[in-house]
Amino acid sequence: MHTWSDIVPPDKRTPGIVAIDPVIFPILDKLYERRIKRLNAQAHALGENGEYYRFLSQIVHFQQQNLALSPLQQDEITAIHAVISREQSNEQLENRLLDITCWQTAYARLITQLEAFLPQEMLQRLSGLSTKPQHLARLVVHLLRAEYQLVNPGSAVVIWAALSACWAQAITSLQKNAVTHPIAQSVVCPCCGAPPVASLVLDGAREGLRYLQCSLCETRWHRVRAVCIACEKTSQIDHWTLDDTKSAIQIETCGDCKSYIKTFRLDYDPTLEAVADDIGSFTLDKVAEAEGFLRIGINPFSFPA
């Protein structure tokens, strides 16, 4: 494993044989560090046009700080686990979210850290939500239910980031006890139920294995390659790139259900980071969507309008 990697090494119980872990939990501090590095690199490459990447880097820096300075207490971890593991109505979910204060505190602190980077109108809107916890919790419910059209896209990025800072901590602390949903054919995270941001083909000891990465808690879960993540069919799977077939960033499309997912070939380029490099390769998404394919999952830094 690379020293900077946030993916834990596999357990080799038998020499030369690597078991396929159904779920891989990230090393969060290293994950945030890699994401910051990739966002800053893209900001630098764009010069004056890289302001949004610098803004996103501040968000991830906050998440990293929150991990170090505000570790979750056991009762908070238990409360978050209860929220993600139960079937509940929107009203029940909203009430349970209101009872968990860590994500609300993280949201308020994040707004303070972003003050210098936000337009005044957006700052006022986001700050106003801090004083309306029930409305804020209702927006979180919409996001968790994938009702993105009911939340301002800019607000969604900040709300999701605060929620992710806490959910990722909780899931990482719980490890295998966090798995509450089936894994084998799951389109959503088996731990928190959120959609993936992308598909990763790993390098190193797990070279060639595919994992989906959660857009909320950062968990990776195994999915067999050359099979559509959405419909499980194999007959019309294609891979798209903008340059050559060895490109480290690809689009996998399914002609049967017309879905697609971004794939990052870490076996070709281990420095790639799913969230940051997804934003930097939206041109590929436009090509796929122009052909009538619909994306599986979301990028937490780019919610649909």
Automatic annotation (TrEMBL):
What's the source species for this entry?
Acetobacter syzygii
The Gene Ontology terms for molecular function here are: ferric iron binding
Q: Carries keyword Ligase?
A: no
Residue stretches making up the FdhE central domain: 188-225
Check the record and name the PANTHER family matching this protein: PROTEIN FDHE (PTHR37689)
Q: Which GO terms describe its biological process?
A: protein maturation
Q: What is this protein called?
A: Formate dehydrogenase accessory protein FdhE
Which intervals hold domain FdhE C-terminal?
A: 228-301
Q: Which residues form the FdhE N-terminal domain?
A: 21-179
Asked whether the keyword Iron is assigned, the reply is no
Q: Which GO terms describe its cellular component?
A: cytosol
